[in-house]
Amino acid sequence: MLPFLSRADETMDANGEGMAQARETGTLGKLMVLLDLVTHADAPLRFTDILSLAGQPRGTLHRQLSHLVEEGLLELDGDGRYAPGLRLLDFAARSWARNEFRLIAEPHLVDLQHATGETVHLGVLRGQSIIYLDKVEGRQPVRMYSQIGNASPCYCTGVGKAALSLLPAESLVDLLAGVNFTRFTAATHASPASLLAEIREIADQGYAFDREEHEAGIRCVAAPIWSEDRTFLGGVSITGPAYRLSMELLAQWVVPVQRAAGRIMEGMRIRLGPRR
Amino acid sequence: MLPFLSRADETMDANGEGMAQARETGTLGKLMVLLDLVTHADAPLRFTDILSLAGQPRGTLHRQLSHLVEEGLLELDGDGRYAPGLRLLDFAARSWARNEFRLIAEPHLVDLQHATGETVHLGVLRGQSIIYLDKVEGRQPVRMYSQIGNASPCYCTGVGKAALSLLPAESLVDLLAGVNFTRFTAATHASPASLLAEIREIADQGYAFDREEHEAGIRCVAAPIWSEDRTFLGGVSITGPAYRLSMELLAQWVVPVQRAAGRIMEGMRIRLGPRR
DNA sequence: AGTATCGTTCCATTATTTGGAACTTGATTT
DNA sequence: AAATCAAGTTCCAAATAATGGAACGATACT
């Protein structure tokens, strides 16, 4: 097995392997599997690499890749290596710029950043992952895309656990059934059982901590965001290094984070409210 | 000719209509037309809106949209409006983070930013558009994605004209034949003729200016970037407000910009060189 | 209640995808 | 230089998925 894909395997697992989820999207689904393969790889893949990973007949695979390249979703360099295409950037730039949820939340994220001086994130639950929609950092060296658009596990991030705490018990169990619990640090929940216990607590309290569960030395407080019809579930969080963010300090930020979350929800209700 | 492509044609106009480029990508091509429609719209579209724009039979369109939604490329909100899906962000984040060209160029962009104090861009030519791959800004309020991933016209941006100056005459004419010249400002080239004249000049000099041609009050200097096999054509630029960047000042920055471009090319050669 | 309007489902027809095999191309070995 | 091997590409009858007209629900409007 190709060594550099170990990473891709993990990500795929996190997306649900248990569910034996047959794609019902015909041709598109098959092509998306390929896009996933290429975008998850650590380096551009050669035809043969993809062949062994995708397990398709050569003729078929060749045409599929050609179509993806022709549409700009993949790029084929002079050495026959396939890399993600720049058209993806173009799509993403537009979908980000016009995203309603993000636009409504943005001013409140900035306020929260100013109030605390630390990094603020906005994330939503999609499948079993949290996708970060926005990030507001205090100091200069923000490398854009550094976090935005990234998919992170829901079971070991503040925003993730906050989002999960909003789910009805049944959906929660269903969702967790598909999750592969990777232990990123000593504090990462290793099983659904302990996670469920914490999530019940979070549901009562209305806020979640990440006690260095995803990355050693990084802590956060998060508050959940929801809509009545559960169209969006997500959260806001304040994140920072453990040496600066003691658990006591994080506790003091519970109220500001919740207030920001509340304002974002109010913004969504005003924007979408009349109809629901 | 199929009527439902009228809108897609418009979109293509900016990108090239003259080429009568029938999509050869079967099912995927049809779905990408829909993705284009939705991501280019100013607001989420309802089923009927897309129906009238795409002009497909209802049954067909419905299934196509369902597939896109199921794959996360589109999202359908509670009011039946289709918006770009967050999976696009996930794809883009990865393709950006691992893009070789960008990774090689990054340190040189930062150097250039420090040397001048103004905003630095890295862009590549894709089709008739420049796609910005990176941006390094001096002062704080960088809204990420503000420019990265955006597709801009090639005929009125510094990076665009620099990239065009590298093309052999024939390809250049072909490419410009497909461009729809929109006059953004009084200084925008209104026809291929005047543009061609300037591009010849740029090819001789090895650098390009943007004299408020895309946006009033914004100027830039750009230098071209190429590889022997023409796999990548693009440019680096320094951009800023006209009141601060006199043409004299821009002229002083020609050398630094060219030097940065040269270093990036060298980086690419080292990385890819042995093979070509 | 009556009637548009909007969205969804069905299914025989049609077009696209499939995949095995044959064929290039280019590098490596004898 | 010829032979061998691996990597990629093209072909085409068979299998599969997409198509689109029409019938069917679901809301909103009168």
How are the SSEs ordered, and which strands pair?
Two copies of one chain form a homodimer.
Chain A: H1 6-14, H2 26-40, E1 45-46, H3 47-54, H4 58-70, E2 74-76, E3 81-84, H5 87-97, H6 100-116, E4 119-126, E5 129-136, E6 151-153, H7 158-164, H8 169-177, H9 192-205, E7 208-211, E8 218-226, E9 233-241, H10 247-252, H11 254-272
Antiparallel strand pairs in A: 1-3, 2-3, 4-5, 4-9, 5-6, 7-8, 8-9
The structure holds a DNA duplex (30 and 30 nucleotides).
Brief write-up:
Chain A has 276 residues and is of the alpha+beta class.
Q: Any idea what the CATH superfamily of the largest domain in chain A is called? A: GAF domain
Q: Which strands sit side by side, in order, in the main sheet of chain A?
A: 6-5-4-9-8-7
Q: Give the proportion of residues in helices of chain A.
A: 40-55%
Distance between the termini of chain A: 51 Å
Largest sheet of chain A: 6 strands, antiparallel
Low-pLDDT runs of chain A = 1-22, 140-145
CATH architectural group of the largest domain in chain A: 2-Layer Sandwich
Overall spatial form of chain A: globular
CATH class of the largest domain in chain A: Alpha Beta
Which percent band covers the strand fraction of chain A? 15-25%
Number of domains of chain A: 2
CATH fold title of the largest domain in chain A: Beta-Lactamase
* Class per helix and strand makeup of chain A: alpha+beta
Helix and strand succession of chain A?
A: HHEHHEEHHEEEHHHEEEHH
Largest interface: A-B, 61 and 61 residues
What is the residue-mean pLDDT of chain A, rounded to a whole number? Answer: 85
Question: If you compute it from the alpha carbons, what radius of gyration of chain A comes out, rounded to the nearest whole angstrom?
Answer: 20 Å
How many helices of chain A? The count is 11
From the structure provided, what is the oligomeric state, counting identical versus distinct chains?
homodimer
